[in-house]
Amino acid sequence: xxxxxxxxxxxxxxxxxxxxxxxxxxxxxxxxxxxxxxxxxxxxxxxxxxxxxxxxxxxxxxxxxxxxxxxxxxxxxxxxxxxxxxxxxxxxxxxxxxxxxxxxxxxxxxxxxxxxxxxxxxxxxxxxxxxxxxxxxxxxxxxxxxxxxxxxxxxxxxxxxxxxxxxxxxxxxxxxxxxxxxxxxxxxxxxxxxxxxxxxxxxxxxxxxxxxxxx
Length: 215
Hints:
Elements: H1 2-14, H2 19-62, H3 78-92, H4 97-100, E1 101-110, E2 120-128, E3 164-173, E4 185-194
Antiparallel strand pairs: 1-2, 1-3, 3-4
């Protein structure tokens, strides 16, 4: 009986049939964690890139809006700005910029013309998105005597008798895998564009009497 037990033990010690299964069981959790991390990182990079592109698109479109004859300065209206934000929402598709984000569009103009002092003012500001807790990091409507708008070293300015459209986009990023080890956090992107055509800078018109997208 003892000899049989010893032979069985030796046979069991030489058996390698279950090693692959054991190795797979040990490695699989690490492999799964790596794959989930790769998926989450890819999604984060994709969303960040799309938010950056949205900011650039809004700034570019804001620099082009307006109506008027080729010989007159273009007039922009509250309806134009609302259409601009509606287009951004449609472009955001499943990101749902209205629900998950906040867009702040600022009109930056020279303090004087000619602007020999190199100072600027935020003439008007319009916002879009339900995340109302997000405020501009670079100024509010009515701010004057600014050296520019934007982060230090990357400030946007405006040419004499012209304006620059400055856009801030804040987006609430939610991970697709789990919020226990990848918490919800905010993405922040900025973009600016100089107004393309000669624009009437006296005011934002509202002949249509639509609700202004004030901040």
